[in-house]
Design brief:
Layout (H helix, E strand, L loop, with lengths): L12 H16 L3 H7 L4 H10 L17 H35 L2 H13 L4 E4 L15 E5 L2 E12 L6 E7 L11 E7 L4 E6 L10 E12 L11 H7 L1 H29 L1 E2 L2 E2 L4 H29 L5 H30 L6 H13 L4 H15 L3
Parallel strand pairs: 1-4
Antiparallel strand pairs: 2-3, 3-7, 4-5, 6-7, 8-9
Helix pairs in contact: 1-4, 4-5, 4-7, 7-8, 7-9, 7-10, 8-9, 9-10, 9-11
The chain binds flavin-adenine dinucleotide (FAD).
The site of flavin-adenine dinucleotide has 22 residues, from strand 1, strand 3, helix 10 and helix 11.
């Protein structure tokens, strides 16, 4: 069932989606509860994901990937999130790193890293957040000091997806502590594991289990100067921000997938469960919930597709990506709660998937810029578009 050698035109989108969906139903759905409830890393699924070519979805074909457009990518992310949102995280952080290298890397960096990333031989993590700085990235403390023909990194990162089982880390650092504004002194490095790199702890989480989130640190970690993303100091903040549009579209797609799963489970269950002599979907209180959930899911999907289309056209889409991320993640939260109400006591049981959706959904309101920040980004864009 490999799709890695498929041609990646629009006409093949259906074939690719069918392959992914078949894999999700046959291999992933039956083991989701086992892995998620044990918070166990799904090594066998990761090997299958490599065979399917999922680690190269958006990496251009010239570098060994599938080169799919963001519009197809969001459909795949949505399909994965409908079944097991966590394994989407394993691919998404990795592809965010691939996108950063493709957009901002030197030719040598692209030629060295992208084919390895496309095959899943190297698997990527993005190291931006620190114990004392998440939203305010200019407040990070990780420092890269010039030393001969390289740099020495010191500092800690927090919440890093793929931090334990990944092997290539995009690390946001400060190379000039006195720069004003601070972002001018920030630099992103492409670090492979080596002496001075340690994973300090795996964080226990409400949801988004099976994929690891870790605290990690760099202690006198030496790295050559040619591992600066793009080869030039001082552009790290722009690189981090430059990846956010696709990152937000990707979180929106996850939200759509999770919300749709909650909706589908609710449509099915409400026809099977009877109270007072009829299926609960025939009680107006339940029908109202289904109607509201379905409408929000569709609106979230349209916002996400629209942001992805703009991204594919090469246009700035902070506004659209922010709106899609905000609305789709809140829709996931809303639908997971409504699904729990519709399922009554069973919704609260670990035997059903609803409680997992309910635990997974809040992450999407936090990651890739919290929803508070999305609202501010949207407002700033509007003020720029319509000056008084
Ligand atoms: C499961 C998980 C996986 C993650 N994976 C990664 C990863 O792979 N790589 C990575 O780098 N990071 C990762 N993160 C970190 C994530 O990106 C941050 O948690 C997020 O950016 C928020 O930062 P913070 O947690 O430090 O919150 P803070 O920045 O401390 O914010 C706390 C609260 O203050 C609000 N706030 C902050 N500033 C403002 C403002 N100016 N105006 C209004 N409100 C504001 C926020 O909205 C929030 O409500 C992950 C997080 C989680 C939970």
């Amino acid at each position: 069932m490999t799709i890695a050698d498929a041609s990646f035109s629009q006409e093949d989108e259906k074939q690719i989606l069918d392959s992914v969906t078949a894999w999700l139903e046959k291999e992933v759905r039956p083991v989701t509860k086992k892995y998620e409830q044990a918070d166990e890393y799904p090594f066998d699924l990761v090997e299958q994901m490599k065979e399917l070519g999922l680690f190269g979805l958006t990496i251009p074909a010239e570098y060994g990937g599938m080169g799919l457009p963001a519009t197809t990518y969001v459909k795949i992310v949505t399909a994965i999130a409908e079944v097991f949102m966590s394994i989407g995280g394993i691919v998404n952080s990795h592809l965010m790193l691939g996108t950063l290298i493709f957009r901002f890397g030197t030719l040598a960096q692209k030629e060295y890293f992208l084919p390895k990333l496309a095959m899943g031989e190297l698997r990527g993590a993005l190291c931006l957040t620190e114990p004392d700085a998440g939203t305010d990235l200019q407040g990070i403390k990780t420092h890269a000091r010039r030393d001969g023909d390289g740099y020495v990194l010191n500092g800690s990162k927090m919440w890093i997806t793929n931090g334990m089982y990944g092997s290539l880390y995009a690390v946001l650092t400060k190379t000039d502590l006195s720069a004003k504004p601070a972002h001018k002194g920030m630099t992103m490095f492409l670090a492979e594991r080596g002496d001075g790199f340690t994973v300090d702890r795996k964080l226990k989480k409400l949801g988004y289990r099976s994929v690891e989130s870790v605290g990690l640190s760099f202690n006198d970690f030496r790295i050559p100067a040619e591992r600066i993303l793009g080869g030039v100091e001082g552009q790290g903040f722009q690189h981090a921000v430059g990846g956010l549009e696709l990152g937000r579209i990707n979180v929106a797609a996850r939200g759509v997938g999770l919300a749709n799963a909650a909706l589908k489970d609710s449509i099915r269950y409400s026809q099977q469960r009877k109270t007072f002599g009829k299926p609960i979907c025939e009680h107006q209180a339940i029908a109202l919930k289904l109607g509201e959930m379905a409408t929000r899911v569709e609106a979230a999907r349209l916002l996400t597709n629209s942001a992805a289309e703009k991204y594919v056209r090469g246009e700035r889409c902070d506004l659209e990506a922010g709106m899609a991320k905000l609305f789709a993640s809140e829709t996931a939260l809303y639908c997971s709660q409504e699904a729990m109400r519709i399922h009554g006591g069973y919704g609260y049981s670990a035997e059903f998937d609803i409680e997992r959706y309910y635990r997974d959904a809040p992450l999407m309101c936090i990651g890739e810029g919290t929803n508070e920040i999305q609202r501010i980004v949207i407002a700033k864009n509007l003020i720029k578009m319509y000056p008084a």
